[in-house]
Specification:
Layout (H helix, E strand, L loop, with lengths): L1 H64 L13 H14 L3 E8 L4 E8 L6 H16 L6 E2 L3 E2 L6 E9 L5 E8 L1 H9 L7 E5 L5 E4 L14 H12 L6 E6 L6 E8 L4 E8 H4 L2 H12 L1 H33 L14 H46 L8 H15 L4 H13 L9 H4 L7 H7 L2 H9 L9 H6 L20 H15 L11 H11 L6 H13 L16
Antiparallel strand pairs: 1-2, 1-6, 3-5, 4-5, 5-6, 7-8, 7-11, 9-10, 10-11
Helix pairs in contact: 1-7, 1-8, 10-11, 10-16, 10-18, 11-16, 16-17
Length: 570
């Protein structure tokens, strides 16, 4: 304990105190510089995004507005020439989805409406015309944009623009522009590792952008940068706004910049969490650590001198404790120091020896208990077989075959032991069947068969109170269920039948085919497997049948009347 206090005090004096002092001074002097750098970066990013967005909107708008400047005047041209000009706009600018011409009294001109057939459903044309009329009825003196809506076809946000033609006004034109390209551009815009940029209208509704902000039209006015912009525009609605700074508090704090597209009135916003925007602090901290490396190195050397006599024994204790935790009881710590650590080593060694003695005693008790369990199970099975001389040894063979199948299916040792018990006890319920039915050598009547079919449920009830046989109950109750669901007692089907019960069922059927019964002679191995193959998929699990075939081909199983395992002919 004294050694620990000395090392702790030394580390505090030599390294931690000067590190904190120098680090605090360095951070306080450079934080403002780092914040200014991050904000300038956000400002430049928004400027570039605004230029891209304006260019994206201006190019198709200029193409559409150019129709009003065709030589001779658009409304004086022949109808076919007007259609050609409209089609040329749609062909040259993929952003233009629909274009409609209205007369001076705001009526749609017949034959002067076109839309991109592959990008715009006919049902959306009516919505386009409705938005255009709303713009016309609002009074137009120049190009004006509608609110952005979501494209019905999922192609991206759509905005409608309308403008008068001629002075005095000869008519009006309206066009739908898709903002899919703008959406792609903003989605690809990376603001650090977690930031994003987005576009919103003057009402604070989302137009498009990165991040998980929602669909087109989603209200994002509560986001702190956009809320600040809306408040600013309330006082100066026609002023070209630009701002950069920190918004929000705590985990919601962001470094953000925004600007306004004057023609459409849209806001372009860039956001990045404060904690990621100011990552330069990490660079500064690394420089501080490098500058204080010498002091820390001295502290570490001094600490190593004082802690050598402590750390080496601790490593030994850790390694030995790990061996003890892995079950290597009796392991000892070889430590000859005459201090508290030496006394601890002696106590540890005494504990390890005691654990070894207890472990050996426990293993002996467990082996005796398991042997007693197995002898009890075998005795129960023999009590069944003693009722019927033709089934003598059947339960033991079913258990042995089931274990071989389980081993082929890579089951655990615990599951293999459960298979052994389940195979031996699968017919335990026959204790409750009257001997006249059990030993009858002719065909059973329907009533007798119904009585015989009660033995799985009877067996389940017999072993139910025995706690350690809990996992075996499935083998006893369900070994007569069929893969196709027509078995008994619960008519389970397919993989709803427990795997151990499916394995016991296969082993039971196999032993029935290869044993001599009152109604049949033992079949050759090949004939028995042919029958099991026919039952595969109907009565038996195909996977289990394949595993049995693999066992018979590789190592064989013991059959009635054979001392050695019998294999399938290769």
């Amino acid at each position: 304990m004294r050694l620990f206090k000395a090392i702790l005090l030394l580390m505090l004096v030599v390294s931690i105190i000067p590190t904190v002092m120098v680090g605090w001074l360095s951070v306080s002097h450079t934080r403002e510089l780092l914040i200014r750098d991050a904000q300038e970066l956000a400002q430049e990013r928004v400027k570039q995004l605004r230029l891209k967005a304006e260019r994206f909107l201006e190019d198709p708008t200029e193409m559409v507005v150019g129709l009003s400047s065709v030589p001779g005047g658009f409304f004086t041209l022949p109808r076919d020439t007007q259609r050609s000009h409209i089609a040329a706009v749609l062909n040259q600018r993929q952003e233009v989805l629909a274009l409609t011409v209205f007369s001076a009294d705001k009526q749609r001109q017949p034959g002067l409406q076109a839309f991109a057939v592959h990008d715009m459903a006919p049902s959306a044309v009516a919505e386009h015309e409705e938005r255009a009329r709303a713009l016309l009825n609002a009074g137009l003196t120049g190009v004006r944009y509608s609110d952005v809506v979501a494209s019905p076809g999922g192609g991206g946000p759509v905005v409608t623009l309308a403008f008068p033609v001629g002075d005095p006004v000869q008519g009006y034109m309206a066009a739908d522009l898709t903002l899919a390209g703008l959406r792609l551009m903003l989605a690809q815009e990376r603001v650090g590792s977690t930031g994003f940029a987005y576009l919103a209208d003057r009402h604070g509704r989302l137009i498009t952008g990165g991040g998980d902000l929602g669909a087109v039209g989603e209200d994002v006015s509560k986001r702190t940068p956009l809320a600040h912009l809306i408040k600013q525009r309330e006082g100066t609605p026609d002023t070209e706004l630009f701002h950069v700074g920190n918004f929000g508090e705590g985990r919601d704090a962001v470094v953000a910049a925004y600007s306004v597209l004057p023609e459409a009135g849209w806001a372009i916003v860039s956001e990045q969490p404060v904690e990621h925007a100011y990552r330069q602090v990490e660079t500064m901290e690394r420089r501080i650590l490098a500058g204080l490396g010498g002091a820390i190195l001295v502290a570490l050397v001094l600490a190593a001198i004082f802690s050598r006599n402590l750390t080496q024994p601790l490593k030994t204790f850790m390694a030995t404790s790990l061996e003890l935790a892995r079950g290597k009881f009796g392991v000892e710590v070889n430590l000859r120091q005459k201090n508290e650590l030496g006394e601890l080593a002696q106590t540890f060694n005494y504990m390890s020896k005691q654990l070894l003695a207890y472990d050996m005693e426990t293993r002996g008790l467990y082996e005796s208990l398991e042997k007693g369990y197995l002898e009890t199970i075998v005795a129960l099975a023999n009590s069944i077989d003693s009722k019927d001389a033709y089934t003598r040894g059947h339960s033991q063979r079913v258990g042995d075959v089931a274990v071989e199948i389980g081993r082929e299916l890579k089951l655990t040792e615990r599951e293999l032991r459960q298979l052994q018990y389940g195979g031996i006890l699968h017919d335990i319920g026959k204790i409750g069947i009257v001997e006249s039915i059990l030993t009858k050598q002719s065909r059973l009547t329907d009533q007798e068969m119904a009585t015989m079919r009660e033995h799985p449920a009877i067996g389940d009830a017999i072993i139910g109170p025995v706690t350690f046989l809990g996992p075996v109950r499935a083998c006893v109750r369900h070994h007569h269920e069929r893969w196709d669901g027509t078995g008994y007692p619960d008519k389970l089907k397919g993989e709803s039948i427990p795997l151990l019960a499916r394995i016991v069922a296969c082993a039971d059927t196999f032993d029935a085919c290869t044993s001599t019964r009152p109604y049949q002679k033992a079949m050759p191995l090949e004939k028995a497997m042919e029958i099991l193959d026919n039952l595969s998929g109907a009565q038996l699990d195909p996977k289990v049948v394949l595993a049995l075939r693999a066992v018979l081909a590789q190592r064989g199983v013991r059959l009635e009347g054979h001392r050695q395992p019998v294999k399938l002919a290769s």
